[in-house]
Each structure stands twice: as C-alpha cells, then as structure tokens.
Amino acid sequence: MRLTRHCPPLKNHNFRRKRRTFCASTDSQFVASLTEIVRGNQSWRVAFNNSFISQTLKPHHVEKVLVQTLDDSRLALRFFNFLGLHKNFNHSTTSFCILIHALVQSSHYWPASSLLQTLFLRGLNPEGLFESFLDSYRRSNVSTTTGFDLLIQTYVQNRREADGLLIVKLMMDCGLLPQIRTLSGVLNGLIRIRQFHKVLHLFDDIVNSGLRPDVYVYTAVVQALCELKDFTRAREVIQQMESSGCDLSVVTYNVFIRGLCKNQRVWEAIENKNLLGNKGLRADVGTYCTLVFGLCKVEEFEVGEEIMNEMIEFGFVPSEAAVSSLADGLRKKGKIENAFDLVNKVKKFGVAPSLFVYNALINSLCKDRKFDEAESLFNDMGHKGLFPNDVTYSVLIDSFCKRGKLDLAVLFLGKMTEAGIKATIYPYCSLISGHCKLGKLSAAKSLFDEMIASGLKPNVVIYTSLISGYCKERDLHTAFQLYHEMTGKGISPSTYTFTTLISGLCRAKRMGEAIKLFGEMAEWNVVPNEVTYNVLIEGHCMEGNSVRAFELLDEMVEKGLVPDSYTYRSLISGLCSMGRVSEAREFMNDLQGEQYKLNEMCLSALLHGYCKEGRLDEALDACREMLGRGVAMDLVCYSVLIYGILRQQDRRSIIDILKKMHDQGLKPDNVLYTTMIDANAKAGNLKMAFGLWDIMVSEGCLPNVVTYTALINGLCKIGLVDKAELLCREMLANNLVPNQNTYGCFLDYLTSEGNMEIAEQLHDVLLEGFLTNTVTYNILIRGFCKLGRIQEAAEVLNNMIDRGIFPDCVSYSTIIYEHCRRGDLQEAIKLWESMVSRGVNPDTVAYNFLIYGCCVSGELSKAFELRNDMMRRGVKPNRVTYNSLIRGTCLMSSVLPTAN
Question: How far is 841 from 870, CA to CA, in rounded Å?
C-alpha cells in the first residue's frame, strides 16, 4: 500500500525502510508495531497521521494493544484517550472494559469510574455489558475482580439498583463473588427503592455463598425487616450478628429502635436502648433523637422530656428536628411553659427548633397571655440563626393588637418592612381590627388605605372589622358604604358581617331595616347563626315586640340552632321591661323544667325586673328558688339585689346580702362598695356609709377617688366640713388626686351657706388647676341666684363661655328661673333665646320654669306656645307643666270678670 504524498515524513527512518514489509505483515505484527509506537518516544500525532495506520487501525487492534500495556495502565489510558480525542476513534465496549479492569487493578478508581460513566451513555443492556466485562476480564488475565465491583457500584450510584443486583447474580453464576462492601451498597440501594424482599433474598445468597456479612450488611437487613414489620426476625438477625463475632455498631441497634418507634412500639425501643451497655455499646445522639421522635408520636411528651434531659446530661447536642418535634408536641398539649423551657435549655448548645415550630410556640405563648416569653423568643431568634418571617411578625402584631398595644403593633409593622419582609394581609387585618375595637376609626381607615396602596386586596374580615367599628360608633351610614363597596368588589359578606350590621340597626332602633337585611342573607347564601338570632331577638325585645322575639326563638330551634344564655336573657329582660316580670319567671321555670341550663345572666335579668318594680321580696324568693335549681348567684346578681335594696333603704337586708356573698366566697368590687357608700351618704346615713367603708378596706378593696368623694359629699351635706377636709387630706396622702366632683362638694357647701366670696376663691384655685367644668360653674350660678345676686350669676355664665366651657341647660335654666321668679319675663325669654341659639336643648325643667314665668306674668298664649314647642322637640310635659298652665288659665279667668 502506498502512503499519500502529502503525509509528513516519519521521524523513525527504520519504519520507512521497512514500509513494504510492514504493509504485508500479519495482524499481530501490526499490533506489535502499534505497541512499539505507544511505548516508544515517537510522537503519536505524527505516527498516527500515517494514512496506512489510520486506515488499518480497527477496534480489535486497540483491544490487543491495551492488553499488552496492562502493566502501565496510565499509558494505556493516555493511548485510549488520544485515539478518542484526536482521531475521533470509536472504541469498542471491550476496549472500555479492558482498560477499566487495568485501571482498577492499579487502584486508579477515578478514571475507571469516569470510563464507566461514558460507557453507560451508550445505553448498553446490563447482560451485554457484563459479558464484555467477563470477556475482557478473562482476556486481560487481571488478578482482581474489583472491576465488577465498580460496575455494580456505578449502577447503584446511578439509581439502577435492579441492574446492579442483576450483575451480582451473574457474577455468582460465574463463580465470582463481589466484595462485601459492594453487596452492602446494593442492599442499601434496594432499601432505597423499597425492595425489601429482594434484600432478604440477596442476604440469603450472601450467606449461602460463604461470604461473611459485615455490620453494614446486617444493618441493611435489619432495616428491611423493620420496614416489613417483621421485628421477630429482625431480632434473630441481630442475634446472628452478635454471635458471628462481627464488629458491632450502635447504628444497627438505632435502625432497630427507629423501626420500633415508627410502629409505636416505643417502650420496646427504650428497653433496647437500655440494653446497649451490656453489649459494650453506648447510645448516641441518633438513639436519643429517635426515641424522642417515637415518644412524641405516641404523645408521651413527659417521657420525651426525660429522654431529652438524659441526652443533654450525657453531653449530646439534640438535633433541630428532635427539639422541634418535642417542643411542638408539648405546645399542642397545652404545656406551653415546658416547651418554652425546652427551647431555652437547648439554646446554649446553639440549637433551636425550626422556624415553623418557633412561630407556633410564639403564637401559643401569646394565646396563653405569656407575652414576655413570646417577645423573649422573638428577640433570641437572631442569635440562633433564625430570621423572623412574615408569620412571626404577624403573630406578634396580632398579640399587640389584642392587648391594645397598637403603637407597638404599628412599630413592628415598620420593623417588618425595614427587614425587607413584604407584609401580607394578616398583620393589616389585626391592626385594623385592633384600632376598630378601641374606636380609633381614623387610624384604622388610614391603615386600610395604606394596605390598598401597597397592592394588597382587603378581604371580608377586614371590611367586617371596619363595619363593626363604625356600627359601634353609631355611624351606620359609613358602615353601609363599606358594605356596598365590599360587595361591589365581588367580596361576599359573611355571617359576622350581616350580624354586625343587624346589631347596629337594632341598637339604632331601625328594626324594619334590620329585618330586611336579615332577609337578604338568604340571597347571599349566608346562613344566620345563634348570634344573628340573638341580636334580632334582643332588638325586638328592646322595641317591646316580645311576640316576634319568641317567634324567632322557635325559628332558630327549627333550623337546628341551639339557644343559649344570651338568647334567654334577652327574652327575660324583654318581658321584664314590659312589666311582665311574672311571665318572665314562669318562662324561666318552663325552661328549667325542660332541662335547659340557665346561668347567672338570666337570673340577673329577672332580678332587675323585680327590683325595678320594687318587688324585692319576690326577687329574694326567686334567688332562693334558682339556687335550689343549681343556678349560682354571681357578683352581677348580688349587685342588682343591692341596688334594689338601696332604693328601699333597707339597711338590714344589705347586711344579709353581704353575709351571703361572703359565705359564697364572693366579695363586692370597688364599684359596688362605692355605690353602697354613696347611697347611704346621700340618705344621710353616714354611720352605715363609714361601716361599709371599714368592711371595704378590711377586704383589701381600696377606695378610689369616687369612693372618697361620696363620703366627702355626705359630710358636706350635713355640715361636717372639717371631717370632710380631713378625709380629703387622707385622700391626698394615699396619692389620690381629688377631681372636680370632690372639690364640687366643698363648693356646693359654701354656696349653700351663702359664703360666695370663699366659694369664688376656691373656684379660682380650681381654675388654675384646670379642674373647673360645667358643674362647678353651675354651683356658683346657683349660689348667686339663691342670694338674689342675679347679675353676678349672669357674669359667671359669660365668664364660663369666655373660657371655652360650654354651659348646659342647668346653667341657663337656673338664671331663667330667677328672672321668672322676679317677674322679669323679657330677660328670661332673652336668655332662653340665647340658650337655644347656642344649640343647648332645653329639658322639661327649663320649659317648666319659663312656662311658669309666662303664666304668672299673664302671657298665657306664650305659655301654650312653649308647651307646643316642647312637644314638637320630643320633650314630654309633666304634672308641673300642666299645673302651671292650669294656674295661668285660672288667673286669666279671674282677671277678665274683674275687668268687665
């Protein structure tokens, strides 16, 4: 064969001289020449550019060259790569296999593995590849079968566990045995794909082949048996391992313990942990964490805590997952403090539960009103490598809002934004709801606008919070504007939305609209609940329509809703307000006869009805009857009784009631004691008032400003001003600051005694301390009028207006009466017109004063005009009004005959 003319000359001149001989040489001579080139110093690039070599070279030549260079596997690899990279030579599978065997024999595992991965890309079936491996193994006469191990391991690593198992079986059929390490890998691979029965079959093959399983093989088999829930055989395998003399490992026992725990056999797992010492082993962090998980699974959290404590005492650092599982389990069981203590205990190891558990624990602490602990966890998060997310901030913001700490909640919303966390709808929901509950509707609306500006869409909860806020402020117009805005955006109202609006309408006594809205609920497919019916029933009761209220009760029962104490209380209160107290009691008797459970609220409503009508004996009888039926008296019930007794000024009954309260373990609160003291002081019964004061103090209930003022007022009324002053000094000594009402008691005493100069001096002092109000000015006006010093009274009125304190009807009517009494009707009418022009609505007393003035001055037509105006304004005339008009008419009748 001729070489092409353009081929560069060979440096090896001997090869050129022998060209003719070489071309005719045998195949073996060609391989020998190639081997010489490969082993020689000549450039492979130059040699293989020879067209004869490049055209003659075939895969089987390369195979033979590789076999002849097995002693230098690196050289063989270079030659293999040279042909592939520079000559684009397509190697045979056998060449790959020969080289892999050579490289493995020389412990060059990385390039051997790389060649196997390339070979896998050819998509050869495992049987064919094994045949090539076996053929090359026999041809190359290598001293190790490690190449087969590499093949099996590569299959397993490539998630082709079944192919790896097939190679194992083919090897064994040929009398070849893989290494135990390789077999362990196959076993674990089969476990990974959950082929547990194949694990057991392979284990039997291993034992039958005469191979000695190691701890890793035993561990894999134990795991497979645990997955199959065959714990009896798993124990037998462990015993087989222990008796085989194989090195033991705690890992095997951990696998068995985990299997037991997974199947809720946690007590057996603990027993196995306790026996580790007898085997010369020691439980490790995996053992303990597995037991903690198992105990949490069966909700044995207290034992879980013990295991966790034992683990920490032995110096093991628990895993985040174990801490998370136990902390969350304790939290869910209501053991919030235990969970918090656990988190604090492990933080010194730098361990913290997951962010999810952390957030859940903070939320539970907030719900449990352990706010300091919740904030402590939040502050610790950064030190533990945990970063609060939107859930963390939302939980804390919600907590602050529910506690009324709205400024702090808004501050945390700002911190959330500064941290680069985009606020979701949830913190805004909490903030808007919180502001609405406290009546801060302007701030709530600003937050609402801010939320929309940030691209968040309000939901039904947010709209309902705003609607509820405006309903509470009696601004139904804005509430319904929001309702229509919400529905206009396609947001369906909820039961709570309708209930809130219906409640607002009922309180505004717009029952017609409330009923209409109740009917609209069906159009929205919204089902009313017990609260909705309770609100409507209460509204009808307040309107006096008990018939419709009871119809609604029947309707809710027919719909499967269960009336509660609120339902019955409204009905009982409604009957009592209509003067049908006996019917209310009969209704309660019927309910109890039907085994309905009534509580203190229902009883207090009935007692209020009796006391309002002065039927105290019947109220006490009802108490005894209800107590016999298991309805306990609470503080409200006793308060209602006491208010009723105070109206009748029955001192003995008060003492009896207080004794019953004491026997029941109840104590009057500050408000009730103050009410009793005030009622007795106003009645002039100061001995009783001070007696109640002593009882109040002895029970640890501290008097407040109102309590002191009640006694001071009583002392001033009977002229004991010196004692009143002593009480005032005591009040100051107890760090209680007297208010306008306290000083008003002294002012009232001075004016009633005609001591106007001292009264004015005291008022000036109050003025300097910003303690003056409409009442204090009215006391001065009354004092001057009583002394006939009407001009000075008018000056006080003008001074009051100049200082920005708004006069009320009493301020004007006191002076108007004095003008009328003097017969100066024109001045009285002038002052009246001034009062009306300032927007002060006259009451019945004011009308009566001016009507009286008109009548005694002979201005009967003016008197009747005032009566008509009075009725137009919705002010009801009383007996005094008509007595004045009758007297005026009689006077006119007597004057006319005389004139005639």
Answer: 10
